[in-house]
Amino acid sequence: MKPEIDYTLYLCTDRKVMTTESIEDCVELAIKGGVSVVQLREKECTSREFYELALAVKEITDAYEVPLIINDRVDIALAIGADGVHLGQMDVPVQAARNVLGPDKIIGATAHNIKEAEKAWKLGADYLGVGDVFGTTSKLDTSRIALDELHIICQSVPIPVVAIGGVSEGNIHKLQGSGVAGAAVISAVIGKENITAAAEELIKGFLGE
Amino acid sequence: MKPEIDYTLYLCTDRKVMTTESIEDCVELAIKGGVSVVQLREKECTSREFYELALAVKEITDAYEVPLIINDRVDIALAIGADGVHLGQMDVPVQAARNVLGPDKIIGATAHNIKEAEKAWKLGADYLGVGDVFGTTSKLDTSRIALDELHIICQSVPIPVVAIGGVSEGNIHKLQGSGVAGAAVISAVIGKENITAAAEELIKGFLGE
After folding, report:
1. N or C: which end of chain A has fewer CB within 10 A?
2. What is the pLDDT of residue A140?
3. Where are any strands of DSSP class E within chain A?
4. Interior angle at CA A67, CA A61 and CA A72, nearest 5
């Protein structure tokens, strides 16, 4: 059966911005602060390294019962028993991934506008990462999306939408009322000296506490 | 059921050495010359590009009833219905790939010595690519293996062994008597002006005709 996922604070890993030595430590500290789902993203290592890293991170996410999503690599998600995959526009198509993964794995897809969002949902995505909402510094090839378009997307597709791109402690409150199920973060959590506290503050900002 | 593969002339693709514009043309010309199995190897493109290229190449290999093996990407092999995967030492482990692929897909593994060969066979590899036999120019990180060690490996593992690394029209005859099931080639076929004729000559050299 497909797992129920709490998307409130969705951590994407990125070794380039981490303040800890190991991804495992980084993920554990973030989960202690309330990160509710973890996506492991590795674009610059061999398949073997990605596989071994994913196995190690899964030990942490399993211990805290937090779902683990693998970026791009459907095979590594299957090999380590992850909860699902996240697919960008440059990864394998959603329907091809679904054929390989079967019905019980989560497939997330990136969408930059309403057209891509509706397409990904119709092809079988379980959630959407929609952005760039606040101007990311992690990627160069993104285009901004206005908060009112984000709101329209949330009303148009019946699956959870996660806001991505430049989300920080200073802007996360702006997502209130947009209809998103959560916010994806990278450096706003794992680029901070106190990863656990950063995650806690972001959740407060998202929930308006 | 697992397909029976004729390993006599095993083509690995490499866009950097191709004399044709498209990989599809290149593969078709090579098959017309007698290439008996094709491995699609793409290390420098996105997953989406690899997937779409693999789909296109599979149309060619299917038309000629030649098996198609995908390098590294177990998910793309499954998504396009390839016959199997080839895994190097930097790819996912053989047993992890077997768990994902099931019993009916071919798994090939690279081995550089008898220890790696026996390990890969015991973990469930269906064939081995063993080299570097003649000094490849395609990879920088290889070490040579002597023909007598290749012979010992062929006697030690009960699965087909394909000689890899620098195989050319000038040296392929040296593999006679080694016990290999075939020879893997890249530039000796797809780097030639007449790809079809190059494949034909290599087969003659391998068979001692």
Report:
1. N
2. 60
3. 9-12, 37-40, 68-71, 84-87, 106-111, 127-131, 161-164, 182-185
4. 105
Alpha carbons B150 and B133: distance in angstroms, whole number: 8
pTM: 0.94
ipTM over 0.90: yes
What would the pLDDT profile of A147-198 be if each residue is shown by its tens digit? 999 999 999 999 999 999 999 999 999 999 999 999 999 999 999 999 999 9
Length of chain A, in residues: 209
Alpha helices in chain B (DSSP H): 23-32, 47-63, 74-80, 94-101, 114-122, 147-156, 187-190, 195-207
Q: Pick the residue from chain B with its C-alpha nearest to A92.
A: B48
Most distant CA pair in chain B, distance: 43
Residues of B in contact with A123 (CB under 8 A): none
Distance separating alpha carbons of residues B36 and B9, to the nearest angstrom: 5
Determine the distance in angstroms separating the CA of B25 from the nearest CA of chain A, rounded to an integer.
23
At B115, give phi and psi (nearest 5°): -65, -50
Q: How far apart are CA B2 and CA B191, in angstroms?
A: 31
Q: What is the pLDDT of residues B173-182, one digit of tens each?
A: 999 999 999 9
Please report the pLDDT score of residue A209 as a whole number: 84
Q: Which residues contact A202 (CB under 8 A, 6 or more apart)?
A: A9, A167, A169, A172, A183, A185, A188, A189
Q: Provide the β-strand partners of residue B106.
A: B84
Angle CA B48–B49–B52, to nearest 5 = 85
